[in-house]
Design brief:
By secondary structure, the chain is mainly α. The protein has one domain (10-67). The protein has 1 helix and 2 strands. It has one helix at 29-67; strands at residues 10-12, 19-21. β1 (10-12) and β2 (19-21) form a beta hairpin.
Length: 68
């Protein structure tokens, strides 16, 4: 990068990473919806993981009680 050249103060869109005016989070409503959808899917995936882990633990404990 050339010395002395400075970019204006800016931030980047949380969803697509494009430069946007400083202090804003998203470049448009489409990115805002996309990020909300991504977060929703991530929460659903995490919930399914915890439920699956809980079911697996219950099965293991039940199998242990049956065997002994």
């Amino acid at each position: 990068m050339a010395a002395g050249i400075r970019l204006p103060e800016h931030s980047h869109c949380k969803f697509c990473g494009d430069p946007i005016p400083f202090g804003e989070e998203y470049c448009d409503e489409e990115c805002r919806r996309g990020e909300a959808e991504r977060v929703s899917k991530e929460k659903r995936r995490d919930l399914m993981f915890y439920v699956s882990a809980g079911v697996a633990i219950v099965i293991i404990v039940a199998a242990g009680l049956i065997i002994y």
